[in-house]
């Protein structure tokens, strides 16, 4: 069986559980689609606003996803201001080492997706190659970093457009994320350390477990950050996270990570060895909790107050991502990033 | 209850991106081969217990991303390894040339006395061969390493090379192992010794480091 994005479902896929979730989610999707159609028709374009933020947190319907990502991330503006730029990159002087690095990963990007197979027609491997090559030529400091293949792959599946995928990749790598993919990978190491600090503050028992076993956070979470949860969480859930990522920035990655860890804290604390901890961190990214992307991501207009510490009182359904980990302001993240980065730089 | 293993080791797989490190590992631990794996990001590991000279050895095998920039992450694992596979692809001259660089990284980051073995993988791709078997042998000799040409695809020399590296690690730790065997004759003690060693090494980590 193949999912709507072209991925083969694993043999042990729980169809009954998925069906149960999806029949409810379909109702929500339909309702959201009507609201989005109205919003998009009314203004003629999408601009960042409180309404759009609320809408985005509740999920962008697939048919509008590419357009909204392009608009809120600034990718559309970049594309409009630089007509023909993408194609000129591909026609200009190339780099053989860059080409080879990308080629090594073509067969290793979503082998479980029918559209990325060599035999597929059209085969998205060529599109992927072009997007990654153009990006490496555009941003020579970064070039190509393994992991970008998965991100570009998802962008291509959603936009079905090479040039838009390029500009969205530019929005992510060039603006939204800190320097995760540059040769020193300092942004990645910093954010892993920031997460470790957040866990220490908010979930001290988990931090104590990690310290006790001398586990490096890189072992558990580097893929979470590098791949932005691609191939870790279910596709639909990843897309919902990316909706917020494009609109609100990289803080969402910490929210997701902390929510996953907090929700499964007791389960993680059962671990008694390093392999056990690793195994548990793999398991917490699977199952009903993450499949039900809407409950996982569900958000209402008041949740950000709780995060910012303004102290709104909220009743009713759980709003996981935006309420689970407790207060988390962008200022906190910025402060932690600064101190962790300084510490890492001092070490090296 | 009897302990499921006597001793625990950590082995590490390094080498250029795309030489087949993950495939070697999957063939060894699960006897599976997939022609297209997803690229390894960061570090991952698998475990397997094998018996060598009557000793049950639990091995943790660490698989690493091959792209150069990931070394900033993977080098943290070098010093925890007792044995290292240096892997190149016989159909890629470049990956063979880079072994020199990988060896110097091992010298820099791995503990002294770490056991190394050279692997020329994808031996089934004879028609694409760019590196001769004797070139591999020559290089291994220069560095004083054992050498195997392997194929994860056809299951050539997989078990042999993993067993060999395990033997080398065991030999290197023979003194500690023999000491324990003669005085205590207690299987549990061997593993505990290894765990204690794990705790003692790597001052950068907390003294409570335990890799069991």
Automatic annotation (TrEMBL), chain A:
<comment type="function">
    <text>May act as a GTPase-activating protein for Rab family protein(s).</text>
</comment>
<dbReference type="InterPro" id="IPR035969">
    <property type="entry name" value="Rab-GAP_TBC_sf"/>
</dbReference>
<dbReference type="Pfam" id="PF00566">
    <property type="entry name" value="RabGAP-TBC"/>
</dbReference>
<protein>
    <submittedName>
        <fullName>Growth hormone-regulated TBC protein 1</fullName>
    </submittedName>
</protein>
<dbReference type="InterPro" id="IPR050302">
    <property type="entry name" value="Rab_GAP_TBC_domain"/>
</dbReference>
<feature type="domain" description="Rab-GAP TBC">
    <location>
        <begin position="59"/>
        <end position="249"/>
    </location>
</feature>
<dbReference type="InterPro" id="IPR000195">
    <property type="entry name" value="Rab-GAP-TBC_dom"/>
</dbReference>
<keyword id="KW-0343">GTPase activation</keyword>
TrEMBL record, chain B:
<dbReference type="InterPro" id="IPR027417">
    <property type="entry name" value="P-loop_NTPase"/>
</dbReference>
<comment type="similarity">
    <text>Belongs to the small GTPase superfamily. Rab family.</text>
</comment>
<dbReference type="InterPro" id="IPR050305">
    <property type="entry name" value="Small_GTPase_Rab"/>
</dbReference>
<dbReference type="InterPro" id="IPR005225">
    <property type="entry name" value="Small_GTP-bd"/>
</dbReference>
<keyword id="KW-0547">Nucleotide-binding</keyword>
<keyword id="KW-0378">Hydrolase</keyword>
<dbReference type="InterPro" id="IPR001806">
    <property type="entry name" value="Small_GTPase"/>
</dbReference>
<protein>
    <recommendedName>
        <fullName>small monomeric GTPase</fullName>
        <ecNumber>3.6.5.2</ecNumber>
    </recommendedName>
</protein>
<dbReference type="Pfam" id="PF00071">
    <property type="entry name" value="Ras"/>
</dbReference>
<keyword id="KW-0636">Prenylation</keyword>
<keyword id="KW-0449">Lipoprotein</keyword>
<keyword id="KW-0342">GTP-binding</keyword>
<dbReference type="InterPro" id="IPR041826">
    <property type="entry name" value="Rab15"/>
</dbReference>
<keyword id="KW-0472">Membrane</keyword>
């Amino acid at each position: 069986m193949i999912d709507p994005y072209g991925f083969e479902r694993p043999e042990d896929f729980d169809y009954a559980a998925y069906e149960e979730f999806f029949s409810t989610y379909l109702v929500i999707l339909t309702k959201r689609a009507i609201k989005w159609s109205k919003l998009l028709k009314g203004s003629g374009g999408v601009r960042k606003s409180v309404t759009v933020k609320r809408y985005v947190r509740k999920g962008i319907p697939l048919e509008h996803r590419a357009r909204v990502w392009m608009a809120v991330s600034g990718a559309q503006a970049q594309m409009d201001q630089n007509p023909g730029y993408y194609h000129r990159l591909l026609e200009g002087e190339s780099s053989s080492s860059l080409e080879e690095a990308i080629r090594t990963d073509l067969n290793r990007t979503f082998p479980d997706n029918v559209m990325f197979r060599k035999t597929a027609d059209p085969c998205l491997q060529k599109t992927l190659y072009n997007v990654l090559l153009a990006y490496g030529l555009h941003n020579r400091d970064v070039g190509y970093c393994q992991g970008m293949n998965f991100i570009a792959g998802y962008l291509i599946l959603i936009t079905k457009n090479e040039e838009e995928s390029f500009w969205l990749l530019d929005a992510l790598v060039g603006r939204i994320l800190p320097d995760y993919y540059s040769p020193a990978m300092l942004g990645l190491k910093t954010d892993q350390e920031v997460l470790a600090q957040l866990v220490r503050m908010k979930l001290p028992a988990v931090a104590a477990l990690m310290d006790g076993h001398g586990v490096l956070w890189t072992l558990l979470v580097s893929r979470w950050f590098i791949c932005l949860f691609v191939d870790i969480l279910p596709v639909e859930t990843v897309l919902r996270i990316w909706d917020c990522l494009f609109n609100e920035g990289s803080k969402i990655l910490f929210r997701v990570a902390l929510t996953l860890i907090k929700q499964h804290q007791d389960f993680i604390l059962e671990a008694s060895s390093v392999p056990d901890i690793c195994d548990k961190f793999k398991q917490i990214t699977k199952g009903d909790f993450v499949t039900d992307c809407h409950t996982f991501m569900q958000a209402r207009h008041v949740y950000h107050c709780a995060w910012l510490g303004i102290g709104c009182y909220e009743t009713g359904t759980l709003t996981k991502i935006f309420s689970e980990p407790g207060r988390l302001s962008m200022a906190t993240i910025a402060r932690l990033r600064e101190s962790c980065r300084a510490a890492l730089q001092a070490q090296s | 209850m009897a302990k499921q293993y006597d001793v625990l080791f950590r082995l590490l797989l390094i080498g250029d991106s795309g030489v087949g490190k993950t495939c070697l590992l999957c063939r060894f631990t699960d006897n599976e081969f997939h022609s297209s794996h997803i690229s390894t990001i960061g570090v991952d590991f698998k475990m397997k217990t094998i018996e060598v000279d009557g000793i049950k050895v639990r091995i943790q095998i660490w698989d690493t991303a091959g792209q150069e920039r990931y070394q900033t992450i993977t080098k943290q694992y070098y010093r925890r390894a007792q044995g290292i596979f240096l892997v190149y692809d016989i159909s890629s001259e470049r990956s063979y040339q880079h072994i020199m660089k990988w060896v110097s990284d091992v010298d820099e980051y791995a503990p002294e006395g770490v056991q190394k073995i050279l692997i020329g993988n994808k031996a089934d791709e004879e028609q694409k061969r760019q590196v001769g078997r004797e070139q591999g042998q020559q290089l291994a000799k220069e560095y004083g390493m054992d050498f195997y040409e392997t194929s994860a695809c056809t299951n050539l020399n997989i078990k042999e090379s993993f067993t060999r590296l395990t033997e080398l690690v065991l030999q290197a730790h023979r003194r500690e192992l023999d000491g324990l065997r003669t005085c205590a004759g207690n299987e549990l003690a061997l593993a505990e010794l290894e765990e204690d060693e794990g705790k003692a090494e790597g001052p950068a980590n907390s003294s409570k480091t335990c890799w069991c």
